[in-house]
Specification:
Blueprint: H1 2-9, H2 12-18, H3 21-45, H4 50-96, H5 98-111, H6 116-127, H7 130-142, H8 152-168, H9 172-176, H10 179-205, H11 209-238
Helix pairs in contact: 3-4, 3-8, 3-10, 3-11, 4-5, 4-7, 4-8, 5-6, 10-11
């Protein structure tokens, strides 16, 4: 464990990103924000009472957060089980056909630019330890990092919290106001939140922060526009 910690000590950010926490957090917040502000504006456009909009927004936030958390947990668990199965199969192949697997690994090293002699020596060195060899083979053949699998419970919890946080933001104006004031406030809050989220994504990805913020806002406004039109059409029909 000490060796593993030292291997990642110089690049802690890479480890965090590989585990899926950053992805789950960003996706959860963005999904919660966009889906719920769209739903709220759709309901508001239909002409329903503020209490209905408020109830719909809170219910959607809770239901969506639970659904996303459960979906992430199932998805990550299934993915980890698949990786473990592939690792078991690879370990069996290493034990049954060690020479063939050594040659295969050496060929992969040559593709990375090693000389034939260096690749063969490196492959033989790795194959001396079956546990290490199966990890190397899995990484080289399938791109799997069995030593850094995401935690399903952690990812599910992050998704739950971030989705709920993003989804509740556009609901807040309806707790303190109603009508046009609440409707416009919801959109303004969503625009600000989407801008901040996009800016942070751009900063983390080391690309244009303004473009990332503008993209997030554009996606959110497009979704709001669609649900607003649907809400108006359906609301008029029902009335």
């Amino acid at each position: 464990m000490a060796k593993k910690s030292l291997e990642h000590e110089g690049h802690p950010d890479h480890r965090a990103l590989a585990g899926g926490s950053a992805r789950a957090g960003v996706f959860g917040f963005s999904d919660g924000l966009v889906s719920n502000v769209s739903l709220i504006i759709g309901f508001a456009a239909g002409g329903v009472d503020a209490s209905v909009v408020r109830l719909a927004g809170i219910a959607a936030a809770v239901a969506g957060a639970a659904s996303m958390a459960a979906g992430e947990w199932v998805s990550i668990s299934a993915q980890n089980e698949l990786v473990e199965r592939e690792m078991a199969l690879e370990l069996r192949e290493l034990k049954i056909h060690p020479e063939a697997e050594t040659s295969e690994l050496a060929a992969m090293y040559r593709q990375h630019g090693m000389s034939r002699e260096q690749a063969a020596a490196s492959a033989r060195e790795v194959m001396r330890d079956p546990e290490r060899a199966v990890i190397v083979h899995a990484r080289e053949e399938f791109g799997l990092d069995a030593g850094n699998l995401p935690n399903p419970l952690q990812i599910g919890l992050i998704s739950l919290i971030t989705f709920l946080g993003g989804a509740m933001l556009p609901v807040l104006p309806w707790i303190f106001a109603s009508g046009s004031a609440a409707k416009y406030s919801s959109v303004i809050v969503a625009i600000v939140a989407a801008s901040i989220a996009g800016y942070m994504i751009g900063q983390q990805a080391e690309r244009s922060k303004i473009s990332s913020a503008a993209r997030q806002v554009a996606i959110m406004l497009l979704a709001v526009g669609v649900t607003y039109i649907i809400g108006r059409l359906v609301g008029v029909t029902i009335n």
